[in-house]
Amino acid sequence: MEEFKTRGQRRRFQTLEKRRKLVSGAAVVGTGLAIAPVALTLPGTQVEAAEYNYQQADAAQSLINQIGSTASQIAAANDLYASVMIAQALLESGNGGSTLSQAPYYNLFGVKGYSDSNPVYLATQEYLDGQWVTMNEPFQTYNSYWESIQEHANVLKSTSFASGTAHYSGAWKSNTSSYQDATAYLTGRYATDPSYGSKLNYLISAYGLTQYDTPSTGATTTTTEVSTSVSATTTTTDSSNSSSTGGSYTVVAGDSLWGIASKYGISVDQLMANNGLTSDVIMIGQQLSV
């Protein structure tokens, strides 16, 4: 029996079930999915809805520090954007503050546990029929963040509802020109939230997550959009290669607006305003007023 790995898969199934008025246990024609086991029949731990909380935004950097290197390695090995995966982890886990994302569960991406022998039950919100609905769902548990990130990569690479067609192939680096293409593709497919992509883009920009991305081996990378074309390992030498003079700064490989703003103790908004920027795209050699 097929299992639902993401909220988007669950949502698509429920929509098809409603439209076609299928009875429980009937297969969904053309999707490769079947009715999932009824949640109440699965053993697991019940967690109160109130425990599924989010920490303040300042916890985000702590989680990034914990998973950044692992995400970069796993993403590079799977033709994926580490920046997108980290942003998904931040969004799905509430900056690492949700019960589900913490020990002993380590589930960063909200992966459902329909086939897990010992899932944990949590209240979660799903976007159904144009409104948010709270549902009690079983979620998978892991032994570490590494396991959670690795399985997430497996989901993005191997999920298929039709023979020979990878469901999330539009989010792979080799099939995109930037992380924005990947986040746009995931919206409505991986998650039901219609603003999912814009939320991921904000997190990637705000926390300079493109520093964890490595170049695609299957597509041509650009030299102007530094945030999507440089290796994460390059950032280790930024401090020795960067240059600043008084109130100006020269952009080097691996830089991001967030990183530069943090270095000079100003906000990203202020840095953008100082330089008349309307996006987070910066170029090597560009002079910025700080």
From TrEMBL:
Chain residue ranges for the region called Disordered: 217-246
PROSITE patterns: LYSM (PS51782)
SUPFAM superfamilies: LysM domain (SSF54106)
GO biological process, one term: killing of cells of another organism
Any one Gene Ontology molecular-function term assigned to this protein's record: amidase activity
Keywords (A to Z) from UniProt: Antimicrobial, Bacteriolytic enzyme, Hydrolase, Membrane, Transmembrane, Transmembrane helix
Keyword Hydrolase listed: yes
TM ranges: 21-40
Ranges where the LysM domain occurs: 247-290
Family affiliation: Belongs to the glycosyl hydrolase 73 family.
UniProt-recorded name of the protein: Peptidoglycan hydrolase
